[in-house]
Amino acid sequence: MKKIIQTLEILEREPEQWMSYLHGQKYEELSHLQERPRLKGKILRFISLYYNSMRNIQLFKQKPQENYDFLFLAGTQNQKSALMGLMSSLKSYKKSFVCIVPENKIEKKDLHTGYFNPLKFTFRDIISSFALNVMRYKNISRAFSERNHKILLDKLDKFLSVHLYLFYFNRVVEEISPSYVIVSNDHNTMNRALIAVARYKGIKTVYLQHASVSNIFPALNFDYSFLDGMSAVEIYQECENNRPPALLIKKNQEIFLSGQKKAISKIDRCDRELIGIAPNALDKDEDVKLLANHLIQKGYKPLLRWHPGLGKRKIEKLKSVLGSMVTFSDPKLDSLNEFFNQTLSVIAGNSSILLEAALAGLTPIYYQITKSPLEDYYGYVEKGISIKCNYLNEIEPCISKINAGKLNIKRESIRYFSSTYDTEWFGKEGELVASILMSISCSEKPLIESISLDSENAGNTTASK
Fold it and tell me: Which of 174, 229, 236, 357 would you label with 402, given CA atoms 20 to 30 Å apart?
């Protein structure tokens, strides 16, 4: 009963339609969220939620968790990649930590690290969640009474799952008593549930930006935020009102510019014949095939890397559509560095891989593989991070200029998005973040000064070793 009361108190400040942020607040704005599931209707969505939950159940009582200094959550492969550098660096400081990861995101190569614990519900988590589903259903229904009626028919499980995650993280946080909770995503339901629990219990919250951000994101609301560069600061300034009325913005937030967190190295310039294609989850297979076929006709060999969040069925379908016409780079097997080291350039639409390619020393090409109204979503073209091609016939001349060294990305443009680029901390961002966190935990002055969202001038934010 105590945990139900605590959960209800959390939901008073941040109800389900805000906790499941994208579906609850941005459903009408993002077309991909409106794709209808195979199982439609409230009852089937309810069954789907608990069917999937039972597949991730902890059948036997585990020994009590030990206490950790830091609790991480990585809900996706990209989030995990952004956190790996920090976790490795914390280990060198002999700090204890654990990272909660959905079981299907833990790979064989992760097992030897000892960092990861699979997300496993208990029967009590599920029963408590079911009870709260019943108690809160009218509140959820009322919140969407004047919205698109398909939201609850197709997405009810997204809002009911809030209760399940709140009970799960409430239990885990009590078991391990972390001093800090660290996430690299601020808008997915799982992450927001952990953040809400930590905030309720007075635990310090830490956010590491894991990809480029946009002004549809929720308000930045952490004790400590590690943003990539001034681009993210300026965008989050536009997000201040993206929060429920009862949830106050933390005072005295500390924001550090610490560069892009994924492990990316500059490539050696040499002759390459492969052109990278990096479709996002919204790009249609036939449009990807059209681009690949065009490159082949122009004498190039496509190397395709799908988005790491793409489901198994969609990957198999993509492979069957493209057949043997392209070479594939599996993000679960090949690192970004391995992908970039094989390519002359990378072609993508609204995807953070364009920035990552620029960090590696490539000149990326912005081309909407499947046309979208979200033109230059992250501002990469506007800010000089990538070259824009509107049509297929513009791509080959652009590649020729890149190959001749006539199109290069300026250092200042890249540093606007990733502050550590071309500094001694480039490629060591995890060490930088760990150093700052250690200073904070010891009440010492960190390597770089924090800034605030309303700062007009961030000052000198590059650290010296």
Answer: 229
Positions of E strands within 196-291: 204-208, 224-227, 254-257, 274-277
Mean pLDDT for the stretch of residues 360-369: 97
> Which helix (H) or strand (E) is 338 found in, with range?
helix 336-340
SS3 367: coil
Which residues are CB-neighbours of 298 under 8 A, at least 6 positions away? 395, 396, 399
Distance, CA of 220 to CA of 251 (rounded, Å) = 11
Cα separation of 154 and 405, whole Å? 50
Phi, psi for 256 (deg, rounded to 5): -120, 140
Please name which of 136, 127, 185, 171 lies closest in space to residue 9, comparing C-alpha atoms. Answer: 136
Alpha-carbon distance of 142 to 140, in angstroms, equals 5
| Residue 127 burial class via C-beta count within 10 angstroms: exposed 0-12, middle 13-18, buried 19 and up | exposed
pLDDT range class, residue 457, cuts 50, 70, 90? very low
Q: Greatest CA span in the chain, whole angstroms?
A: 69
Please determine whether the domains at 2-257 and 274-417 fall in the same fold group of CATH. Answer: yes
- Decide if 183 contacts 194 (C-beta within 8 A): yes
Task: Decide: 12 and 199 in contact? Cβ < 8 Å.
Answer: no
Handedness of CA 318, 320, 325, 326 (dihedral sign): positive
Enumerate the domain spans of the chain.
2-257, 274-417
Q: What is the pLDDT of residue 273?
A: 80
Q: Which CATH number fits the domain 274-417, given the four candidates 3.30.160.70, 3.40.50.1360, 3.40.50.2000, 3.40.930.10?
A: 3.40.50.2000
Give the fold, CATH level 3, of 2-257: Rossmann fold (3.40.50)
Mean pLDDT of 269-275: 77
* Residue 302 three-state SS: strand
Q: What's the rounded Cα separation, in Å, for the pair 108 and 328?
A: 20
Task: Average the pLDDT over 279-308 and give the result.
Answer: 95
Instruction: Summarize the confidence of residues 96-107 as an average pLDDT.
Output: 90
Of 87-101, 148-162, 261-275, 309-323, the one with minimum mean pLDDT is 261-275
Query: 296-337, pLDDT tens digit by residue?
Result: 999 999 999 999 888 888 999 999 999 999 999 999 889 999
Q: Can you give the pLDDT at residue 459?
A: 46
Q: What is the rounded distance in angstroms from the CA atom of residue 377 to the CA atom of residue 396?
A: 23
Q: Is 183 helix (H, G, I), strand (E, B) or coil?
A: strand
